[in-house]
Amino acid sequence: MSVLEPHHNFIDGKWQPAEGGGRHQIRNPARPDEVLGDFPSSAPADVDAAVSAAAGAAKEWARMPGPQRGAILSRFAQLLESRKAELGRIVTLEMGKPLGEAAGEVGRAATEARFSAGEASRLDGHTFATERAGYSCQTVLEPLGVVAAISPWNFPVVAPVRKVAPALACGNAVVLKPASITPWSSSYIVELFESAGVPPGVVNLVIGSGNAIGNRLVDDPRVGGITFTGSTAVGIPLNERAARRLAKVQLELGGKNPAVVVDYDDLEGAAREIVSAALQCSGQRCTAISRVIVGEDQADALVQELLAQISRIRVGDGLDEKTTMGPLSSKTQLETVERYVQIGRDSSAKLLAGGRRLAEDPDRQGYFYAPTLFDHVSPDSPLALEEIFGPVLPVIRVRDFDQALEVANASRYGLAAALFTTKMKCAQAFMRTIRAGMIHINHGTASQAHVPFGGVKDSGLGAYSIGHTAKEFYTNVKAVYVKWE
C-alpha cells in the first residue's frame, strides 16, 4: 500500500515538518504490511520550538477567564462526539482494538473533556480566618505555565485528552508527545483543539521517539510540569531526571491488578466481569485484571466459568464488527507475551486455554494471540508478579481470605484491585487492607470519567488524574496575605 500524505508536527498554530526531515511509518497491527501514514521523527530542535511556542502563549491563555477556556473545551468535547466514528476507525487502524472499543474510547474522552471544561470555572482557593485584625488570608491557584504531556499507545485518544484538557482548563499551555506507534489519533485531536478555538501556541504536538526527544522535553527549565503515562521502567528514570530541577511530575505507570474471589454466589457473573476487564484492549491496559486469586473451595467452579467466557471471544481484525479482541499492538508486544507464556509452560502451572499466536506469519498476517488462561500458578511466579500487558490470565489458588490479601499485596504495583464476595466483612477488610489506588467491589476494574484515577507503590506518583484531583497537579497554590488597615 502506498504511503499516505505525510503528517507533520503542530507548533505555534502551524503544521510543519520535523527539523532535519526525519520520518517514520506507522502500520496496521492487524495487517503489518499496510502502511497507514508517514510521520515525523522529531529532533531536539523541534522540542525547543514547541516549548518556545507554548511559553510564549501561556501568559495570555492564563489571563483568559476560566469560563471562557471552559467554553472552548466544551466545543472540543462536542467535536469529539461528532467525529466518534471517524476517529474511532483511526484508533482501530493504528492500535488494533475493535471498533466498538475504539468508539467507546472516543466517547469517554469527550466525557472527560466536558468535565475539564466545568473545572475551568471551579479553580477556587480558600479564605482563612486571620490571627490579626485588619488582615485577610487566602490561597489562589495559578497555572504551572508549560506542561509536557507524554502519552502511551494503548489509549491514543483518552490518554492525550486526559492530559491536555485539564491542563488547558487550569490555564496552561501544552507540548504533547504521543507514542511514536500511535501518533495519528493525536494529530486528529490537535486539529479538533484548533477547530474549537484554542489559540496558536497553546497546544503543540511533537512526534517522535522518547529516546530522541523525551529527555529534551523533561530537561527544559521552561516546562513547569511533566505528566507521563507508560511503563514503570520508563517512568522511574523520567522522575529521577525531572527531580534534578524540582519539576512537578504526574506519573501513571504499570499495574498487576488482582481479582480476588472469596465466598461469592455468582461465579458466572464474576467470570464475565473478570474476562472483560482482563482482555479488553487485548490485555494491553494498565488497569486490566491480570491475576485471579481464588479460594480453593471455589477455584474449580470459577475456572470453568472463566473458560466458558474465554471461549466466546472472537479474535480478529478490529474493523470486523464481529471481532471482540483485536491484535497486539506490535511485534514487540507479541514477543513479550510469548516469552511469559513460555515461562508458564516451563513451570508447574497448567495451561488451560490459548498459549499460541494465531498467525503463522505475524509480520504479514497480524500480531494476533489467543486469549490464554493458566491455572495453579504459584504466587511467586513471574506470571503472578510481573506486568505482561497482554491476553494472559493466571489463576492463583489460596487457602482462605487472609492468604488472598497477602498474595494480592505481594506485587510491587498498586493500581487497581477487585473483590468478588457476598460477605460484607470481607469487602470492608479488602477496602482497608489492599494497597491500591482504586478498589472495585463485585465488578471489574472500570473507572468513571469524573472520579480520581491513579495508583500507589510502583503504579504512580503525584496527583491523581481525572476528577477534582487533576488540578492539584496542573496548578500551584499561592498564599496571599493582605493588610487592609
Describe the structure.
Helix 3 (84-95) runs antiparallel to helix 6 (183-196) and helix 4 (99-119) runs parallel beside helix 5. The protein has helices spanning 44-63, 66-82, 84-95, 99-119, 158-169, 183-196, 210-219, 232-243, 267-279, 296-311, 331-345, 362-365, 382-385, 401-408, 424-433, 470-474; strands at 9-11, 14-16, 23-28, 31-40, 126-128, 135-143, 146-150, 173-177, 203-205, 225-229, 248-252, 257-261, 289-295, 350-353, 372-375, 392-398, 413-414, 416-420, 438-441, 456-457, 460-461, 475-483. By secondary structure, the chain is an alpha/beta fold. It has 16 helices and 22 strands. The chain has 2 domains: 9-253 and 459-482, Aldehyde Dehydrogenase, Chain A, domain 1; 257-448, Aldehyde Dehydrogenase, Chain A, domain 2 (3-Layer(aba) Sandwich), CATH 3.40.309. It is 40% helix and 22% strand. The model has no long low-confidence stretch (mean pLDDT 97).
What is the general shape? globular
Specify the helix fraction band.
25-40%
Rg for CA atoms: 23 Å
CATH level-3 fold name of the largest domain: Aldehyde Dehydrogenase, Chain A, domain 1
Report the count of strand segments: 22
Overall residue-averaged pLDDT value: 97
For the record, the CATH class of the largest domain is: Alpha Beta
N- and C-termini, Cα separation: 76 Å
CATH level 4 superfamily of the largest domain? Aldehyde Dehydrogenase, Chain A, domain 1
Kindly estimate the percentage of residues that lie in beta strands according to DSSP: 15-25%
Number of continuous helical runs: 16
Q: Name the strands of the widest sheet in spatial order.
A: 14-15-16-13-12-18-19
CATH architecture of the largest domain: 3-Layer(aba) Sandwich
Largest sheet: 7 strands, mixed
- The total domain count is 2
